[in-house]
Specification:
The structure holds two protein chains of two kinds. Chain A has a two-stranded antiparallel ribbon with strand order 1-2. Chain A is built from 16 helices and two strands. Chain A is globular. Chain A has one domain. Chain B contains 22 helices and 19 strands. Classes of the chains: A mainly alpha, B alpha+beta.
């Protein structure tokens, strides 16, 4: 590697150059997917842009601008800010916790008047950034040492506990899984995963006994036997399966989904929108959406492989895995494979915070792509 | 740098593992979707339809009942019901207040509506009041803008315009009882009514019709979104009775408050033209359920308004039976028409003395005089010569002792005793004196007014064994073919001569006072008196006035007749319970009714092709 060209003055790119190097393929995939989402929201409102499709379009447009703007930010700046971002996200989570205590019950939002912020969403991106920065600073050998588990472990555990207290089981699981995936990709020794695997049953028992709330336990039980309570907690899963199954291979047609439109399906514009899509567009439509998701994931992996920096690789893979986890958990939930946890379907479900988090995440991926050839120093300002 | 390359390689390996896991997980989702949407699609399709398609029954309008001239006896009246849809009104209480300012609304109604609206889903209409008058409907409609969520629903309920006058013919409808449930889903509809008596009950299947169905799509909350399919039911078949409601009304009024029965029928085709059992009851009262006091009142009334006395009342025929005995004697040849019997006022048989109603006797009487003056001794003698079994055989030829088969419920068969019957049922042998008693229609003999009318009809036409009917089935001939009576016309002429003289012979005709004065309408008939209790020697000697005897111990007054004499068309039987003598009470009723029937020309059937009413019209 010709170190001379980069050592003192990393190549500056003009804005135009950066725009040219932008991952427009990813943008196109996102637009296609979001477009499908707009159509479903239009259908969910019985053929109306209000109240869901139009606001969602506005959010997506804002998200796109945010994404492209973020893509223009130098990856070394992202690296430099990573811990600060994590710190701010942690403070927000604590703020929610305090607000929740003095306010009423479950609190996940901070109201800024103009918009509401969900700190747990911010944390998903912040955690990826922080872990990527931490492992970027370690050599391969250091990474494999047991001492390198301590700081990332704490970085995952603190927000997870805070989120669990909200209580938001779904997001907590996403944080653990997403963080674990980054650690795995960073190259920590495999034996830690073996140990974690062995400890999981114990952890599950403790969680079941001491951490989980009654309604969360009920969800798990209902998952194990949905027909146990067809008009209560199992109702959603059962109705979702009926809607899905009755869609068949080619579906009932756009805006023709009987179960969704007759309100047998709960939350058809948010968590259960995949069910509506599969009812109206059938297996064919569902597979088309899965294909789009797969392509987006492959894109993230491609970006990771092309990046010269460990930071960039881990950011891209972290965002990609997080995205996948959203997709998997949501679809597995509505098809009755796993208990009902409140996780939206990325780019499709109605909702502002999730959309913004996703677009920020993809903005980071795009930045990694734009700055794929730039080497990032071990420490900000330090040598490569 | 080497380290960095090492780190990158490790990243690539691990990323590929992560990617592989993700692809595998996606594959799992695809498999799950395939299972749901392809393998089990059919099952879920069925479940989905069950979810959303709700089948509702459309009750068919009940068939209407008309008299022979198209007068509605049982019709479906539109009723108006005020309902409130709570989700369409801001305040249920305020709306109820406004309704109460327009129409009568009890505090109980208001409380009930408030309770129901709070318990049910907002789109479910809650009935505020039933059976609104037209004036109330218009009041509500005019104020509709101030009454959000208030709707008038139109329903149908059975109505009997003539109320009491034909209650035993029409019967009534009432709520379906447990025992009636046959699996027909219609019967399980709330508010559905079935026929409980009269033709409403006998023709229940025809009148009911078949249910239509309406498939509606409902959402998860049960709100109807749209109608998917609709299959109209078959409305109940309208029924045209043989009754002439004009004559029926006249008859019912003529009977007044008496406990009694009047039947008028066509002697040729058996059409029953009037069938009045008194007292009647108001069938309309049964529609929405009687109060228990009203029901007890009907049950405990000594005049038994609920019983159709024409079919369910059994009376000894008394002297009205004498024509049958006389005919049996002529046909058997045990006596000639002009052979006379001496009546000293009694007859002795064995140790018993059998009295004639006329204390000092009729002297020498032949058959015509025997009928005309209703001489008991003459018929004792004839019966004695005949023997009971020959009398019974002739009685059966005239329709006694067996149900007439008229299509109405509650018919009893009466009783014509024979030697075999007495041995089988009472285990005693037949006594000769019992034949004598039977010869004047007393003793074990029992007949229903319907049987008496049939007997009169067969005597009147003298030719065929006419059978009564209250309904001409579609396609049934105007003149059904009946079995021949097989009576010698000369013998019959003797009997008819006697019946004519009973009424029209000023010289000792027992019912001369009740004759029809218009010669073209004149009737022939026979009086009868059925003893309610044995006449004791003391009674006979005291010669008590009828007014001195308690009502329920007085004799039943009977009368059978046909008219006009020249070309008989109408037969009539009258029974007045505890009315006293047949000539005094029953005969005048028969006279008035038969005169009215002829004046109205009740037996004519309206021209075909000129329907007297709008088909299927709900009046």
């Amino acid at each position: 590697m010709a170190a001379t060209s980069h050592r003192f003055a990393p190549p500056g790119m003009t804005l135009l150059q950066k725009l040219g190097a932008m991952s427009w393929g990813l943008v196109a995939l996102l637009m296609l997917t979001a477009g499908l989402g707009f159509a479903m929201l239009y259908s969910a409102a019985n053929g109306s842009l209000q109240p869901w499709a139009a606001p969602q379009m506005v959010r997506f447009a804002v998200g796109l601008v945010l994404m492209v703007s973020l893509a223009m930010v130098d990856i070394r700046q992202l690296h430099r800010w990573a811990f600060w971002v994590f710190g701010v996200a942690l403070l927000l989570l604590v703020g929610v916790e305090i607000a929740g205590r003095i306010g009423m019950g479950a609190q996940r939002w901070i109201d800024f008047g103009v918009f509401q912020l969900q700190p747990s969403e911010v944390m998903k991106v912040a955690l990826v950034l922080a872990l990527a920065r931490y492992f970027h600073g370690l050599s391969g050998e250091q990474t494999r040492k047991w001492t390198s588990l301590f700081i990332p472990g704490v970085m995952i555990l603190i927000p997870t506990v805070l989120v669990l207290r909200q209580p938001d089981l779904g997001t907590a699981l996403l944080l653990v899984a997403g963080g674990g995936a980054v650690m795995f990709a960073a190259g920590i020794a495999l034996r830690w995963f073996a140990i974690a695997g062995a400890l999981t049953p114990i952890a599950l028992y403790v969680a079941w006994k001491f951490v989980l709330h009654d309604y969360q336990r009920a969800r798990v039980l209902t998952y194990l036997d949905p027909e146990r309570d067809p008009l209560g907690a199992g109702y959603h899963i059962l109705q979702s399966k009926i809607a899905l199954g009755s869609g068949g291979l080619f579906g009932k047609g756009f805006m023709e989904g009987t179960q969704s439109h007759l309100s047998f399906l709960p939350e058809k514009q948010t968590d259960f929108i995949f069910t509506m899509l599969a009812e109206e567009l059938g297996l064919v439509g569902a597979l088309l959406l899965l294909l789009l998701y797969l392509l987006i994931m492959i894109y993230c992996f491609g970006v990771a492989f092309r990046s010269t920096s460990q930071f960039g690789r881990l950011v891209a893979i972290g965002i990609g895995v997080n995205f996948f986890l959203y997709v998997f958990i949501n679809i597995a939930m509505v098809t009755g494979l796993i208990p009902v946890v409140g996780v939206p379907l990325p780019l499709i479900s109605y909702g502002g915070t999730a959309m913004m988090t996703l677009m920020v995440g993809f903005g980071l991926v795009a930045s990694v792509y734009v700055h794929r050839d730039i080497e990032v120093p071990r420490e900000p300002g330090g040598s490569v | 740098m080497r380290q960095d390359i090492d780190r990158r390689k490790r990243f690539t390996r691990r990323a590929l593992v992560l990617g592989g896991l993700q692809v595998a997980a996606l594959g799992g989702l695809v498999g799950r979707l395939y299972g749901l949407q392809v393998v089990d699609a059919e099952r879920y399709q069925v479940l989905a339809d069950e979810n959303r398609i709700n089948v509702r029954l459309l009750p068919p309008p009940r068939g209407l009942i008309f008299d022979r001239f198209g007068e509605g006896l049982a019709i479906n009246r539109q009723t108006y019901r005020l309902v409130l849809v709570s989700e369409q009104t801001d305040s249920v209480a305020a709306t109820l207040d406004r309704i109460a300012s327009l129409i009568a609304l009890s505090d109980r109604d208001i409380r009930r509506v408030l309770k129901e609206t709070s318990r049910r889903r907002g789109f479910v209409p809650v009935t505020v009041r039933e059976d609104l008058s037209w004036a109330e409907v218009t009041k509500v409609e005019v104020n509709a803008p101030e009454l959000p969520g208030v709707q008038i629903e139109v329903g149908q309920s059975r109505h009997y315009p003539f109320a009491n006058a034909a209650s035993h013919v029409t019967g009534y409808v009432g709520a379906v009882s447990e025992a009636e449930l046959t699996g027909d889903p219609l019967l399980e509809l709330p508010g559905f009514r079935t026929g409980k008596n009269g033709v409403e009950r006998v023709f229940e299947q025809e009148l009911r019709g078949t249910a239509g169905t309406r498939q509606v799509e409902v959402n998860a909350y049960g709100r109807v979104i749209r109608e998917v399919a609709r299959e109209e039911g078959q409305p109940g078949t309208d029924l045209t009775l043989t009754l002439d409601m004009g004559l029926q009304n006249f008859t019912a009024q003529r009977l007044g408050g008496e406990a009694g029965s009047v039947v008028v029928m066509d002697i040729h085709n058996g059409d029953v033209l009037a069938l009045a059992s008194s007292p009647g009851f108001d069938p309309n009262a049964f529609n929405y359920g009687l109060t228990s006091e009203a029901w007890q009142g009907l049950l405990n009334d000594p005049k038994a308004p609920l019983i159709n006395k024409i079919l369910g009342g059994q009376y000894p025929p008394g002297s009205t039976f004498k024509m049958v005995v006389a005919l049996a004697a002529l046909e058997a040849g045990v006596i000639a028409p002009d052979e006379t019997v001496y009546c000293p006022g009694f007859m002795e048989l064995g140790n018993h003395t059998f009295h004639c109603w006329k204390r000092w006797g009729h002297g020498h009487v032949g058959m015509v005089d025997g009928i005309k003056q209703s001489c008991d001794v003459y018929f004792y003698e004839v019966a004695n010569r005949l023997g009971m079994d020959r009398i019974a055989a002739m009685a059966e030829r005239f329709g006694l002792g067996a149900p007439t088969g008229v299509e109405l419920p509650g018919e009893r068969s009466g009783l014509v005793p024979t030697k075999a019957w007495k041995e089988a049922v009472l285990g005693e042998s037949w006594q000769g004196g019992e034949t004598l008693i039977a010869g004047i229609g007393q003793g074990y003999m029992l007949t229903t007014p319907m049987q008496l009318a049939v007997m009169a009809a067969r005597l009147g036409n003298g030719n065929v064994a006419v059978e009564p009917r209250v309904h001409r089935r579609p396609g049934a001939p105007a003149q059904p073919v009946f079995a021949p009576l097989g009576i010698d016309p000369e013998h019959l002429a003797v009997i008819q001569d006697g019946m004519i003289r009973v009424i029209n012979d000023p010289n000792a005709g027992t019912a001369y006072a009740a004759r029809i004065e218009e010669e073209s309408m004149a009737m022939a008939g026979k009086t009868g008196t059925a003893q309610v209790r044995r006449i004791s020697k003391a009674d006979r000697e005291a010669n008590r006035d009828i007014e001195d005897i308690p009502w329920n111990e007085r004799d039943h007054a009977l009368f059978v007749a046909y008219a006009p004499i020249a070309a008989p068309r109408y037969a009539c039987a009258v029974v007045v319970e505890h009315g006293g003598g047949g000539s005094r009470v029953a005969a005048p009723i028969a006279r008035d009714v038969l005169r009215e029937a002829q004046r109205r020309d009740s037996a004519r059937w309206p021209e075909e092709g000129a329907p007297p009413r709008e088909p299927g019209a709900a009046v």
